[in-house]
Amino acid sequence: MCGTLQLLNVSRPVKIDDLYIDVNILEEIASQQWLEITDLQNFTPKDFDRFGLGEISQIQIEGMRSVETYSKLRVLGKPGAGKTTFLQHLAIQCNRGRFAANRVPIFITLRDFADESRTADEFSLIHYIREEFLTSGISDPVAVETLLRSGKVLVLLDGLDEVCAQDSKAVVKEIRRFSENYQQNLFVVTCRTAAKALNLNRFTDVEIAPFTQAQIDDFGYRWFEAFTKITPQEGREQAIQFIEKLNLPENLPFRQLATTPLFLHLACWMFQHQQQFPSQRSEFYKQCLDVLLSKWDETKGFEREELYQGFSLPQKLKLLSQIAAITFEQGKYFFEQYSVEEHISDYLRDLPNASMISEGNRSTIASQFPGGVIEPEELQIESQGVLKAIELQHGLLTERVRGIFSFSDLAFQEYFTARKVVANYNLQVTEQPLDRLVSHMTDPRWREIFLLTVTMLRSADPLVLLMKRRIDALVADDRDLQQFLGWAHQKSLATPPSPTAIRAFHHALAHQPQLVPLLALSSTLDQGVFLDMAFDDLVQKCTMSAKRNAKGINADNVTHARACVDALDNALILVMNTKLHRSLQQLKDQLPDLTKDRKEFQTWWKTNALDWAEQIRTAISEHRNTQHQWNFSPDQQQLLQQYYAANQLLIDCLNTGCVVTAAVRQEIEATLLLPQTELEDREWQWG
């Protein structure tokens, strides 16, 4: 019962020892704290993923130590956090004498207890345990009572949240009574965080913490060694590849979700079959949501009494997409309970032919009552019920602190927002959803929405074309920036075979030199690019060294001056037998020999360094058409940065594996970073 695990998408059980990772426990429950919404408004996306999950200020303790510390413990956790597995591990370790060695572990699934008790019309844990002992071949009627009275039992009660509503009060009452009568024993109850209102007197509430990086790595090694079908060594090699790729910057969304054991298992499973993480993250999110919305409870053989059982899966997805899109558009990662309930009310009110009836389970859509009217008070109650149902059953909306909710992970809010954009576009709504999305191109917060949307569209042509238009329009009316783009274009024409790559290189060289080393690694860049890099390095060194003379020459300045001479020597080697070589050689001949007379060099350098450095710059500019003085204003620099970032976003969208026709892809790639005059001369007609 407790020694094996049955995992999603895996056809065979796996031994718990092969996969179990020691969990950490948070002693402070974030959702029970009091905070104002203003305390959360300045949180960044990074803060969103950390807040309330134990990585800011909360102290974590080992799970088994928490059981030793508190004799009556309720372990809370979100769906897939590992609550049941933790209880199974306690049972196995106790049975082996490695934990609570003087006790007998008794593991009870509370859903099964409630079902049998309802049938027998008696909610009695002592009776239920006796029956379990009989099933196990222990017929002594006083054995259970003897063990309990002597405090020799580790009572493990799993899944308080899985007890149906009609039985929950009776089950909670029986747990209270039973734990009071036999309080010398150890009691551990698991429950989803959202069901914490099912209060257990004299029990201490703790919460399972998300996996740390070390736990993720350990789980990865164990998972691949357990499921790789060839040899353990090959499993370990796969695990190393998995961990290395998971930690790459582009896979940050996967790593953030992998702090939940359930999603970490899905990530491992997907990586094993594809040997990489999918370029289209939307597919991974879709699988995660499929698990949360349906498969997770099915795997455990449990069918919940949904508070909103009348909703179809598409309706649930539509509701969550509507909440996500509205809150994300407003810049809200956290939202007050009344606010999200209003969004739910708006959705319920607009359901076609829906009348909400409060009979039995709330929020049942009775489509057989077309045109039914929902009273405001009833609508509010129904909205509260739907919110609690979503939190309890799926955990996609979660109460971070009292009265303040968010999506359980920013990735889901972003996915649902993108899904809403795509749904509106497919429905051809009048608000032009793609135009509205493209208006956010210069906002970094929307980057992931673009990357998700472009992969979810049946054809990404309309979106990428709109993005290209928007990018070009950003700098179309700025004469200085257009001149700069024109200069970079002329440089690219002189350096085939990849004009777009050359334009990008010279943009970086002139405005973002920190990007040059990365661009220079591209195999599409020829020797001319490396010449420009060398000359830029020469000018930078000469100018920096010359400016240090304002404070007088010292040994440090001489060191910088020597670096200038070395850079000049390198440049001379690169341009042998050219006019530029002769010009640079003449400038070098003006320098006194530093190795022969250091004092003479210092005197000359103090007087002539600035003028000499300017002559270097002028000579290079004349012969290489470089080193222009682009004196952009701060506003222009910011606009140019936005222009670069938007172009990079467009390229990243094209590289997601989205569906784009070859003609559109080729034209976009050919016209990146072009000035307006060149764009107007091209025959291509956008859209």
Describe, in plain words, how this protein is organized in 3D:
- It contains 30 helices and 14 strands.
- With 687 residues, it is of the alpha/beta class.
- α19 runs parallel beside α28 and α22 runs parallel beside α24.
- The two termini are 62 Å apart.
- About 6% of the residues have low confidence.
For the structure shown, list the relevant keywords.
687 residues, alpha/beta, 7-stranded mixed β-sheet, 3-stranded antiparallel β-sheet, 30 helices
Overall body shape: elongated
- Terminal residue distance: 62 Å
Helix content: 55-70%
Give the number of DSSP strands: 14
Tally of separate helices: 30
User: From the helix content, strand content and strand pairing, which structural class follows?
Assistant: alpha/beta
Q: Quick gist of this model?
A:
Helices cover 57% and strands 9% of the residues.
Secondary structure elements and pairings:
Layout: E1 4-5, E2 14-15, H1 16-19, E3 24-26, H2 45-50, E4 60-62, H3 63-69, E5 72-77, H4 83-95, E6 104-109, H5 110-120, H6 125-135, H7 143-149, E7 153-158, H8 165-181, E8 186-192, E9 204-208, H9 213-227, H10 232-246, H11 252-257, H12 261-274, H13 281-299, H14 313-329, E10 335-336, H15 337-350, E11 356-359, E12 361-365, H16 376-393, E13 397-401, E14 404-407, H17 410-426, H18 433-438, H19 447-456, H20 461-474, H21 479-493, H22 499-511, H23 516-520, H24 527-547, H25 555-574, H26 579-589, H27 598-624, H28 634-654, H29 662-670, H30 676-681
Parallel strand pairs: 5-8, 5-9, 6-7, 7-8
Antiparallel strand pairs: 1-2, 3-4, 3-9, 10-14, 11-12, 13-14
Helix pairs in contact: 9-10, 9-12, 14-15, 14-17, 15-16, 17-19, 19-28, 20-28, 21-22, 22-24, 24-25, 24-27, 25-26, 26-27
